Amino acid sequence: MGELIEQVLRLAHYALLLGLFGWTTFGLVGLRGQSRAPLDRGGHTLSIAAFAAPVVSLALMLASIAAMMGEPIAALNWPMVEAMMAGTDIGKAFLVRAALLVIGLCALLGRYRGAVGFPIASACFAGALITLGWSGHAAATEGAFGIFHRLNNGVHLLAAGLWLGAIGWFLRLTVAAHSKRNNIPAQPLLAAMHGFAPLGVGLVVTVAFTGLINSQLTFGLENSGTVLTTSYGILLAAKVILVGGLLAFGAHNARISRRNALTEDDEIADTAIKLSGLRRSLMSEFVLAISVIVLVAVLGTMSPMIV
Fold first, then answer.
1. Closest CA to 19 of 171, 143, 138, 134
2. What is the pTM of this model?
3. Alpha carbon distance 291, 125 (integer Å)
4. DSSP conformation class of 136
5. What percent of the chain has pLDDT over 90?
6. Taking a C-beta distance cutoff of 8 angstroms, is the pair 178, 276 a contact?
7. H/E element holding 74?
8. Contact residues for 210 (Cβ-Cβ < 8 A; gap 6+)
9. Is the pLDDT of residue 11 over 80?
10. What is the pLDDT of residue 12?
């Protein structure tokens, strides 16, 4: 039961950190010129997610300590928790992450008092996301390669988070434009998606390249045949397949936006067809992205088990 709770918390942790960074950052850099779109940046939902992030992070830390000590969470005492937090890499990473998440939450809650709140929150969530590489496979690599592994893993997570944020934003805007076609024209949204294409390609290349480097540093690509016979390898292969599906949907969305971004035809029937197709495609892409996060959360607790 304790292991299941830890897995659920790990999944929620990854989803919250990736989502918070991707949503806030893409809202800042990926939607410039979208003044006609409903850019309230998430409102109460974003604040709730930002509040939940440090709570889930703390719960996951306690569950991890309990698992390492072989004790139920209820049996933990403060000296035990303090020793693990101050004396282990996972504990130090949690302390830094918790501080960044709290600062990010405060910045979001005060974002209407000035224009700097949202960028500060974005930077804090980026830092919190990078700390995930301070434990797990990246942290197991020692020396200079260990530092490089952590940096590479951080870039991998940031690119993936921004990609996820783009999917979430475009899905939200497409649903809003589809339900309020008389108030929210489709053309600016299609133009924004078309303009995102170069950045999207860059993110895809970055995720793929850093993912290969992570694999090389974790188990060595020359050992791929052996790894694929393990549970870790099977799940890793499933992750690669799902990412391929994300690429296919992304390419499909790019074709739609490229074909329609520069046209002036905005008849209601034609617009409904465009937005309906985009909504289905983006929803499928979002579901695949969540599935990838599930696999990432599980893979982080497994070993390639090369013998």
1. 171
2. 0.87
3. 22
4. S
5. 28
6. yes
7. none
8. 152, 153, 155, 156, 159
9. yes
10. 93
